[in-house]
C-alpha cells in the first residue's frame, strides 16, 4: 500500500493546470506500488496515473526511466507513457518531490498465476528485451553481483535473528556467485523487477508492463531468472515446471536463448534469489514495527535459492535444449 | 489506507459478470476509507467504486445504507448510487464479504478547508436533512448519548495512559451530558460522519457526499455539531469562527434552525466531541502497534471538548440568532 505523500486537492489542480488535459475530475491514492506514491487521477481527458517519487528513487535516474518508457512504446511494448506538460517536459515537481503523469494502462495483474500467464510473460519479456536495443541511455544495475556484498554486510550481524545459520549460508553463496558470475552473455536493458504486480493481463493475454523503476543494463538472461523466481513457485513453495517451461519456451520463441545463456540459467536464478533475499532481509531488519508497510518474508527467497542450488541443467526447469535446436 | 481484503482478478471478473456493465478494464485498491475495502473498478461502461464491507459493518444495516443512498438521490442529493446486478439486487457477496458496486462520484475532498467549503457544506448538510424526510427505514444511533458510557467503560481503566486525569474528566463530562441531553429537538436521518474526506468539491462547489455507513436516525442539529467539530478547527487547534458562521448561516438558509436547536448547539458539540474522543480512545488503546492503520489522536477531541465547555451561546460560533429572525 503506497501513498507516502498527502497531496492536496489544490496541489493537484495547479499541477494538472500545467497540462492540456482539462480540469481535474477526481484523484484517489492507490494501494499499489511499494516505492512511490501513486494516484489514479481522472481529468476531463480521461484517467492517468500520477506518481510522486519517494526517497528510494534517485532523481538522477528519472530521465533513464522516462526515456525508456517512451523508447519501449515506440518499439511496440505496451507500457505507461509519460505525459508532457505544455512546456514539453514530462518530469515535474509536486509537493517537493519529482512527479510524473503517465498514461493509464488497461488490465489487471494476476493474483493467482496460471500457466497461460507464464506463457504470455515469456513472450512479453523477450519483446521487451528486443525493444530495448538501441536505447541510448545507460544505467548500471546497482543490485547485481557487485552490489550484493555491501548489502549482505549491512545485514550480516543480525541475519541469524531471522534464521540461525543464515549469515554463513549467505556468505558461502556469495563467494560462489562472485567467483562464477558470467560476464560474456548478451546484455541490454532489463526490467529487473517483473513480478506479477507489474504485468497486466486482459482475458488471459498480456496487456502491458508497468513500473520500470529498477530497469537497468544487465544480462538479459538474468531478467529471465528473476521471472523464474517470481512466477514459477507455488504459494506452498513447490516449483511449477509447467509454468517454467511455458515461460522459457515462449521467451525463446521471440528471442532465442543461446546455449551459454541456458547453461548459466541455474546460476543466474541463484543470483536473482540472493538479490531479493538480501533486500528483503535488509528491509526486514530495518523496518520499524509500526511502519505502514507490509514487510516481505526474506526466507521465501532462501527457499528458492536452495532449490536452484540443486539444479544442474535447464532441463530441470522443464526446457529441453534440443527443442530449441541446441 | 484501506484495502483489507485482497480480491483476485478472477474474483473481480466473475463478480462484474453479474452486471450489465461489460468487461472489467482495471481494478485498483484505493487508499481511502477506514472501515471497508474500496476499489476503483473500471469496466467498459466507465468507473465505479467496489466496496467490500469488513467486520465493523453489520450486514443487517446494509439495506438501510443502500436504500438511503437511493432515497437521497431521488430527492436531489448527489451521492453514490448502488448498482443493481442483472437479478435486480445491489447487495451481493465477494470473497466472503457483503459487497456493493456504486456509481463513481466526481470531485475531490478538500485537504485544506477554506471558508467556501464550510459554506457549501452547510447548505449540503441541510439539503441532506430535508431529503432524508420520508425515508421509511430506521436505524438507531448506537454512537449517541446512550452508547457513550459502555464505550467509556471499555477504555476507562487505561484512559490515563493517554493523558493523566482523562478518566475523571470523561466521567464528569458524561454525567453532565446524560443529565442534559435534549430529547425534543427535530430528528431525522443524519450522516453522522460528515468529515472532510466524505465531502467532494469541484471548483469550490460541493459536488457530492459519500460514505453513509454511520447514517442513522438522530437529532438533526447533532449532525451540525459533528460538522462544527470536523470542519471549523484549524490544524493548530484554534476555532475558526468565520468557517463556523458560514456553516451555520448556510445551513439555516436551507433548513431554518429553531431557537431550541441553536440553544442546544454548544451541548450537542460537546456530545459530538466526546463521541469521537471515545471511539478514537478505544482504537488507540486497542490497535496493535503493527497494524496497517493510522490511529487518530483522541486528544484532538479532548481539546475540542474543552473549547465547547466554555461556549455559552451560539453567538460564540459566529452566528447572531437575530440574523435568523430569532
From TrEMBL, chains A, B:
Biological process according to GO: threonine biosynthetic process
Stored InterPro entries: Aminoglycoside_PTrfase, Homoserine_kinase_II, Kinase-like_dom_sf, Pseudomonas-type_ThrB
UniProtKB keywords: Amino-acid biosynthesis, ATP-binding, Kinase, Nucleotide-binding, Threonine biosynthesis, Transferase
Enzyme class: transferase
Reactions this protein catalyses: L-homoserine + ATP = O-phospho-L-homoserine + ADP + H(+)
MF (Gene Ontology): ATP binding; homoserine kinase activity
Signal peptide start and end residues: none
Pathway terms, separated by semicolons: Amino-acid biosynthesis; L-threonine biosynthesis; L-threonine from L-aspartate: step 4/5
Highest taxon of source: Bacteria
Ranges for domain Aminoglycoside phosphotransferase: 27-257
Enzyme Commission numbers on file: 2.7.1.39
Family, per entry: Belongs to the pseudomonas-type ThrB family.
Annotated HAMAP family: Homoser_kinase_2 (MF_00301)
Name of this chain's protein: Homoserine kinase
Organism for this UniProt entry: Aerophototrophica crusticola
Gene behind the chain: thrB
Amino acid at each position: 500500500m503506497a501513498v507516502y505523500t498527502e497531496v492536496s486537492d489544490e496541489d493537484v489542480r495547479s499541477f494538472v493546470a500545467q497540462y492540456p488535459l482539462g480540469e481535474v475530475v477526481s484523484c484517489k491514492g492507490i494501494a499499489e506500488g511499494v516505492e512511490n506514491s501513486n494516484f489514479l487521477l481522472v481529468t476531463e481527458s480521461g484517467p492517468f496515473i500520477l506518481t510522486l517519487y519517494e526517497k528510494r528513487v534517485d532523481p538522477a535516474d528519472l530521465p533513464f526511466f522516462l526515456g525508456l518508457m517512451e523508447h519501449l512504446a515506440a518499439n511496440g511494448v505496451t507500457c505507461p507513457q509519460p505525459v508532457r506538460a505544455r512546456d514539453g517536459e514530462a518530469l515535474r515537481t509536486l509537493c517537493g518531490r519529482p512527479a510524473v503523469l503517465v498514461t493509464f494502462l488497461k488490465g489487471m495483474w494476476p493474483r493467482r498465476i496460471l500457466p497461460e500467464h507464464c506463457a504470455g510473460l515469456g513472450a512479453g519479456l523477450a519483446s521487451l528485451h528486443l525493444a530495448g536495443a538501441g536505447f541510448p541511455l545507460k544505467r548500471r544495475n546497482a543490485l547485481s553481483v557487485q552490489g550484493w556484498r555491501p548489502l549482505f554486510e549491512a545485514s550480516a550481524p543480525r541475519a541469524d535473528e531471522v534464521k540461525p545459520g543464515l549469515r554463513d549460508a549467505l556468505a558461502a553463496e556469495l563467494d560462489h556467485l562472485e567467483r562464477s558470475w558470467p560476464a560474456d552473455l548478451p546484455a541490454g536493458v532489463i526490467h529487473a523487477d517483473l513480478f506479477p504486480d507489474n504485468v497486466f493481463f486482459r482475458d488471459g493475454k498480456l496487456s502491458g508492463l508497468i513500473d520500470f523503476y529498477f530497469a537497468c543494463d544487465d544480462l538479459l538472461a538474468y531478467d529471465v531468472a528473476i521471472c523464474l523466481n517470481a512466477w514459477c513457485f507455488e504459494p506452498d513453495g513447490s516449483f511449477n515446471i509447467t509454468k517454467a517451461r511455458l515461460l522459457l519456451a515462449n521467451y525463446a520463441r521471440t528471442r532465442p536463448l543461446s546455449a551459454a545463456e541456458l547453461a548459466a540459467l541455474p546460476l543466474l536464478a541463484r543470483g536473482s534469489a540472493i538479490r531479493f533475499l538480501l533486500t528483503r532481509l535488509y528491509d526486514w531488519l530495518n523496518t520499524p514495527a509500526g511502519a505502514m508497510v507490509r514487510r516481505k518474508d526474506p526466507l521465501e527467497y532462501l527457499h528458492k535459492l536452495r532449490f536452484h542450488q540443486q539444479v544442474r541443467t535447464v532441463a530441470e526447469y522443464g526446457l529441453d535444449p534440443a527443442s530449441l535446436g541446441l
